[in-house]
Amino acid sequence: MVSRKLLLIIFFIASLTQIHGDVMKISNFTVIIDVDRDPQHIIYNITLQNMVDYPLVPGIVEFRLQKQGPKKLWIIPLPFEKEVKPLEVKNLKGYYSFDGVNKIPMKTYVEYYNNYSIIKYEIWEPIERRSNITIFLEYDTHILEDGILFKTLSIPVGSNMDIEHLNIKFITNRYSKTYQYPSGDTFKVPKDTLLMINAEFSILPLPKLPTYGYLLFWLSLFLLVFLLLVYEIVRSYGREDRDSHR
């Protein structure tokens, strides 16, 4: 009888990771990216909310990470050609707090798959009914794609529960942000979906652009080369005509 009760308790705890997406939500999720550091430093500040009238154990919560960037031909980014791969996570740390002040270390780890990676953390302390818990995660990763004049990055955010308010903050003193898609800094992300925030930065003091600056740069360069070739061809034909009439 004792072993059966133990089995039921273990099964219940394991099942929490499957059902807490319906009884818990992430009411606030702030992502801070220090673009200037190498590798880039990323901080998560998460408020996890118990939405029911009884205590809940969060159990295992996961976040999917993915790196997207343009494929390159030598140093030239190829338009509309994307390369997807997992993010390599370093120096991962995690804490949780019930009062926002006293931080308790928690178990954190990373799992790697073919084209994505997953950060997981575990909390086996119950959240009281209709209460919140604050979670702090930070890690280093190479998320910035280097270019000659422009640098791009993709911030993937997704969870196995709803994210009600997602806030994205970029910290940089070295670059100007030239493009972001989708635009804005506050989003809502349904559970089991991955929102990809694409941004571009430049060493040039440029304003916000309607699309990637590197696309405009290379298209302008190719157009200039094309016009110069046309000009040279027209000039050569003009010289031949003048020579034939002499």
- What's the CATH topology name? Immunoglobulin-like
> How many separate structural domains?
1
Q: Quickly give the structural class.
A: alpha+beta
Cα radius of gyration in angstroms = 25 Å
Could you give the order of the helices and strands? HEEEEEEEEEEEEEEEEH
Tally of alpha and pi helices: 2
Task: Sketch the major β-sheet.
Answer: 7 strands, mixed
User: Total strand count, please?
Assistant: 16
Strand order of the largest sheet: 7-6-10-2-1-13-15
**What gross morphology would you assign?**
elongated
**What is the terminal-to-terminal distance?**
113 Å
Strand content: over 45%
Keywords: Membrane, Transmembrane, Transmembrane helix
Transmembrane segments: 212-234
